[in-house]
Every structure is written in C-alpha cells, then in structure tokens.
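Milestone M4 deliverable, item 7.
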Amino acid sequence: MAKIKLTKNELKKQKDSLKMFLRYLPTLMLKKQQLQAEIRTIEIKIKELTGEKEGIDESFKSWIAVFGERGFFTPGLVKIARIKTARGNIAGVPIPLFQGAEFVTETYNLLRTPLWLDMAVERMKRVFLLDLEIRTLEEQRRRLDHELRVTTQRVNLFEKIKIPETRTNIKKIQVYLGDQQTSAVVRGKIAKRGMEADQRSGAAQ
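Output delivered:
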C-alpha cells in the first residue's frame, strides 16, 4: 500500500476515489454478466452449427465412393468468391458479423452428369457457409473472452483491492485527524488553565 498524506485534502481525495469505485463497480459487474451471457449464447450457436455441419459431412460419406469413381465431384467444383461480413458491437466490444458468401461453381454438363451432383453442389455451399459462420462466431467468442478477462480483472481490482484499500486509508486519516483535534483541544484547555492560574497569581499579588 502506498504511503498517504494524513491531511484533510487527502481525506477528500480518498473519499472521492471511493465514490468513483462504488459508482463504477456495478457497471463493471453488469458488463461482466452481459459478456458471460453473450459468450454462452455464441457457444450454443457454434454447437448447433457444428452439429449441422457434421450431419452434412456424414451424408457426404455415403456419396464419396460414387463421386470418386465417376470423377464428377472435384475439389474445385465449388469455390468461395467473396465473403460478406459486417461490423457489430456487444457490450462495447467490436465484433465481426457473418452475412453470407458468394460462390463460383465450375460449369458442368447437366445432361451428362447425374442428378445428385446438383444436390451435392448445394450441400457443399451449405458446408462452406456453416464453416465460415462458425469461424466468425469463434472470433466473436475470442474477442468477448478477452474482454471478459479484462473486465473480471477490473472487478476484482475494485472489489478486492481498491475499495478496501481506500476505506482503510479514509479510516486511518480520520483517526489521525481526530487524534490531532483531540490533542489541540487538550492543549487549549491546558493553556487556558495556565492563563487563568497566571491571572489569579497576578491578582493575589
């Protein structure tokens, strides 16, 4: 704990600091709760999207042999041309928002390719979209996790260090100033009695 001045000015400074800490602490605690709730919501959404993606991946497994044998479904058949994002804000934290993507599909002969190829292309696009959205949500979670750590540190700093420390400083200064005031009163009384004694002594002479 840093050494403090035992003065009235320092007492006012410490009281002002305490008011500020007590005013901001509820705001920080509210922000902490909001961040925790948002992170839980994002984690649920990631779990849902991951489940959907895994379901599509499983369905693809039953087609892999067919794709491989006939060579219709090639890795470059569907490509991402552009990812569409925007900027958002949660509890003062800037976050990316996923708004979709544009794809480029290689031209293929509709008459010479099986019907399932159209469905495969659409499902592949859906897998790409899910993967991109999951990545965006994971970035949101990373940013909110960082902000939550910082906010939690501030809450702990105010709650466990600054507020108790400031209250201790206020009490210490008040005790010191009280003792000084008491000493001044005692000295005043002693001086007054001395003066009265001198006056009586002078009068007696």
